[in-house]
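> forwarded from #structure-qc
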């Protein structure tokens, strides 16, 4: 295996509770040729203090005013130097072989542009796993992404070959929920990228107890904003848009019902 440089982009906002564990999981990777770009998005807590505990030349630290996760990731995209790049949120954890597993999948075929992998979902500690997600398709994932098929997208888990992106793609900074899916759609749609995956777990994803009301309202808004963006892309088919609309309405409807917000649930159907 060649000694490729892998860029890992980590946005951080008020992340002092978990960011040490996230950074340690990068330092503990079996594959050592990486750079970690940590972007402090105007945190008000001890996030900066926790980041500065680490003295590793491979960690590059940026601080900016608070403008959201998409803005923070864009700083990383603009400054990364790697042959491959991926993302890691400041409250999640990489298994030790996360980078190595995905890089090995790239080595299996020169035609692969994206490598994904399985995700374990946990609460509190990585031993407390409550579910697992695994990808289940190969090839161009554009239709699966747009139609919310769920076979190639969990979150910001993709590792992308940088040479496959002829011109940089940036996150839409107006969108705070679903921004990673829209970013991947734009990458795949513009450059017809080929997706593959490893069966290994490449991410431990932390679940949080939070306000269902607030999250669902923002998720609903995010889906709607993504829909408007998708309508402007010439590489998105009309039939796929129709499926996207039906599915996102169903997701939001059932989510509001699940937390007994009945008026909001039915309002989703008629909007």
């Amino acid at each position: 295996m060649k000694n490729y440089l892998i860029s890992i982009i980590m946005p951080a906002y008020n992340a002092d509770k978990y960011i040490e564990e996230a950074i340690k999981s990068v330092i503990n990777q079996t594959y050592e040729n990486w750079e970690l770009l940590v972007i402090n998005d105007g945190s008000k807590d001890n996030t900066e203090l926790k980041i500065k505990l680490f003295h590793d030349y491979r960690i590059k630290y940026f601080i900016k005013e608070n403008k959201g996760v998409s803005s923070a990731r864009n700083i990383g995209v603009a400054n990364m130097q790697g042959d491959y790049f991926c993302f890691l949120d400041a409250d999640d954890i990489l298994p030790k072989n996360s980078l190595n597993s995905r890089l090995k999948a790239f080595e299996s075929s020169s035609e692969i542009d994206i490598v994904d992998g399985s995700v374990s979902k946990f609460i509190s500690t990585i031993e407390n796993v409550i579910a697992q997600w695994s990808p289940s398709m190969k090839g161009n994932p554009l239709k699966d992404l747009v139609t919310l098929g769920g076979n190639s997208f969990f979150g910001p888990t993709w590792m992308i070959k940088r040479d496959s992106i002829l011109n940089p793609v940036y996150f839409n900074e107006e969108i705070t929920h679903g921004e990673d899916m829209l970013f991947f759609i734009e990458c795949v749609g513009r450059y017809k990228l080929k997706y593959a995956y490893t069966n290994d777990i490449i991410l431990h994803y932390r679940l949080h107890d939070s306000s269902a009301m607030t999250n669902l309202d923002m998720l609903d808004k995010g889906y709607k904003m993504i829909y408007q963006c998708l309508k402007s892309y010439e590489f998105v088919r009309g039939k796929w848009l129709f499926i996207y609309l039906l599915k996102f309405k169903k997701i939001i409807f059932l989510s509001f019902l699940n937390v007994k917000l009945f008026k909001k649930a039915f309002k989703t159907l008629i909007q």
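QC bot note: The mean pLDDT is 94. The longest strand covers residues 195-206.
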